[in-house]
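sorry for the late reply, my laptop died twice this morning and i had to redo everyting from scratch. anyway the thing you sent over, i finally got around to it. pasting the sequence first so we're on the same page, its 82 residues, then the predicted structure underneath. double check i copied it right bc i was rushing
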Amino acid sequence: MLALLATPVRRWILASLLLPVVATVLAKLGHYLERRNGGSPTAVSRVLLKISSVTRRFTRKHDPEADQAPVTPASSHTRHLP
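ok and here's the structure:
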């Protein structure tokens, strides 16, 4: 059956299965590094979360919420005024 699949179809199947897994692993690793650093983002965690966001957007092009990266309160750079 694998011989019946053309190369572009095989690539599409691998991309549709592997990219979400890669995005999830990178996001979890980035959040882990932030937690380990006391909640403040590091250069490595920012890069990992950005790559995760890009791969997530690539896999869910037609999802209206795909452009929004999840923001955790610990990694937010905004201040709440009283």
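The chain has a mean pLDDT of 76.
thats about all i looked at so far, will dig more tmrw
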